Amino acid sequence: MTPEERLDQLEPLLSETTAILDRHTAQLRQHATLLRQLVQATESNTQLMQQLLVGQANCLEQLALLNAPLPQPVETSTPTLFSLVDYTPDPAQRLEELETRLDTMGSQLETLGSKMDLILTKLIRVYINN
Q1: Stated pTM of the model
Q2: What DSSP assignment string belongs to 29-54?
């Protein structure tokens, strides 16, 4: 076989190899872009999770304050204008509101947890495929 014949056989092989490498490069770029998006989504979800945890801690502090024993009210013969303006809801109502908030926050945390699991699954798939 002459050198020219060998070159003729080698040329299609090289062009096919180059085409395959180009496809793989394009796929890797797509995967890198998707991975960046997943990392950004994970970071934003982490920040949201931290905010929810801070809010939940605040609600728990308020709940602890509500569960503390209340001082006995001083008996007055007639209600004054000042006492009517300073009306606050009874502790049971405040406790119900806080429990509702905590339930809402709990469900939001569960939803966020399931989203984080989905993101983690996608990250693992991208990592395995690369």
Answers
A1: 0.45
A2: HHHHHHHHHHHHHHHHHHHHHHHHHH
Q: What is the pLDDT of residue 76?
A: 56
Q: CA 120 to CA 42: how far, in whole Å?
A: 9
**CA angle, corner 51, sides to 50 and 54, nearest 5?**
85
CB 116 within 8 A of CB 42: yes
Residue 18 has pLDDT above 60, yes or no: yes
Which single residue is written with the structure tokens 């979800």? 45
129 and 27 Cβ atoms separated by less than 8 Å = no
The encoded tokens of residue 63 equal 């709940």
- CA distance linking residue 79 with residue 15, whole number of Å: 95
- Give tens-digit pLDDT for 27-56: 999 999 999 998 888 888 888 888 888 888
Structure-token pair, residue 17:
């190899």
Indicate the SS3 state at residue 69: coil
76: left (phi over 0), alpha (psi -120 to 50) or beta: beta
What is the widest separation between alpha-carbon atoms in the chain?
120
